[in-house]
User: Fold this.
Amino acid sequence: MTHHAEIALSDPLLIAPINAAKELFWRQGYDETSIEDVVCATGMNRYALYNAFGGKLELFLAVMESYFIERKNLFMTALSDPQGGPMAAIREVSEYCITEMTDRGAGCLMCDVAAEVGRYDKAVSERVLSYLEEIRSADEMALAQADERGELNPAISPKEGAALLIANMLGVGAMARNGAGRKELLTLFNTCLRLLGRPTGAQSHLRKRRNPKTTAVKQI
Amino acid sequence: MTHHAEIALSDPLLIAPINAAKELFWRQGYDETSIEDVVCATGMNRYALYNAFGGKLELFLAVMESYFIERKNLFMTALSDPQGGPMAAIREVSEYCITEMTDRGAGCLMCDVAAEVGRYDKAVSERVLSYLEEIRSADEMALAQADERGELNPAISPKEGAALLIANMLGVGAMARNGAGRKELLTLFNTCLRLLGRPTGAQSHLRKRRNPKTTAVKQI
DNA sequence: TCTGACTTAGAATGCCTATTCTGGATTTGC
DNA sequence: GCAAATCCAGAATAGGCATTCTAAGTCAGA
Assistant:
C-alpha cells in the first residue's frame, strides 16, 4: 500500500502534518530528524503516518514537493507582475527568504536538506536542480523587466544576474546554517542587489571616503 | 587516553590517514561516512585509529583543523602579495576551489560538513564562523589592494566585496553539491568577479545587444 | 632465540532508529 | 445499540553503526 507524494499533497488532512514535518526537516536535516520527532510534532499516530505516506523517505518527498510548490508560487506571484518595480519585488521576496532562514538557522530546504537525501536518490538531486532552475528563471524574468526599465547593470545580462542572485541566496543560506545573524545577511544581500542595479553617480562618494589619496578632488 | 586534534596534526604518520578521511567526509558528509569506510580508505587498523584519535568526532575535528590550516595557507600565500595583481589572485584561488568542489560534487568542508557536526557541538559551529571570517578578511585584503589600484567597483567597499565573494563561493558549493557543472559554476563566479571590478565602457556593448531600443546609438 | 610489549582482524556489545506487530479502544454505518 | 472496520499506544523486530574486546600474530631488543 504505497502512497505517492502527489496523493499526500492533495489530501487536505495531511497539510498540517506535512508542514510540521517540513519544519523539522528544515531545521534539523533528514538524518537528524527521527520518525519519533515527527510523531511528536504532528501529533499523528505512527501507524497512521506510515499508512498515509509509506515511510520516512516518502514523507520527505511529500514535504519537498510541498516546499517546491509553495516556493514557486511565492516567486511567481511576487515577480511576474511586480507593482513596485522588479528590483523592489526581488528585494521583497529575498528578504522574506532570509527571514525564513535566520528564523530556523537553516538554509534552503531543497538545496541543503534534499541534497542530503540526493546522495541516495538521484531523482531527488535532479529535482533540486530543477527547483533551482525554476527560481532562477523567475529571477531572470524580473531582471529582464528591470533591464527594459534601464534598472539593470549594463555589465550583465538578466540571465547572469539571476544566477548570481541564486548563488548569493544559497550562500546566505550556508551562512545562516552556521549561525550568521540576520543583519549581516541582509547587508550581504543588499551589496549583491546594489551591484545588480544600474550604477549611479551618487555611489562614487563611497569611494571618496575610502580612498582619499586618489579621489580627494571634489566631485559634486 | 584521549588525544587532541592538535596532537594528531603534529604527527607526520597521521597526515595520510587524515587526508584520506578528509576526502571521505568531504564527499559523503559526516553521518554518511562510517568508521568502516575510514578503516578501508586509510588502510589503518580500527584499533589503531581509535588509539590515535579517540573516536569519530575527534577524527573529524582533526580533519577540520587540517582543512582550516591548509585553506588559510592557500588564501594567505595567494592573496597577501599577489604577483599578477589582486583581482587575478582572487580569480586563481577561487577557480582552484571551484575545481576542488566539482571534483567531489561537494561544497566547502567547513561550511557544509562541519555545519552538520555543529548541530551537536557549538564549538564546531563557532570554528566554522571563524574560518569564514578568516577567509573573508584575506579576500578583503586583496580587494583593498585592488581598490588602491583603482580596480575595485567604486560602488562597494573591500569589506562588502569580500563578503560577497564568500557568499558567492558558498553558493557555488551548494550548487556543486547538487550536481551543477564546472562550466556553469565558473561562469557564475566570473559574473561575480566582473561586478566587483571597476566597470569599463567596453562592457556596455553587452547591453546594446540585449536592449537595442534604448541604447542603439553607437558608443564606440 | 626468547620474552614482553604492541598490533591486528574480526567478533562481540550496546545503542539508536525505522518499521512492523498486536491486542485493545473507538468510531462508523445502519 | 451493535457488528465491523478502523485506529491507537506501545511493545517487538531488525538492521546499522560506533566502540570495545579478544585471542592470535608480530616485532624489538638482548
User: Anything to note?
Assistant: Chain A is about 75% helix and 0% strand. The longest helix of chain A spans residues 122-148.
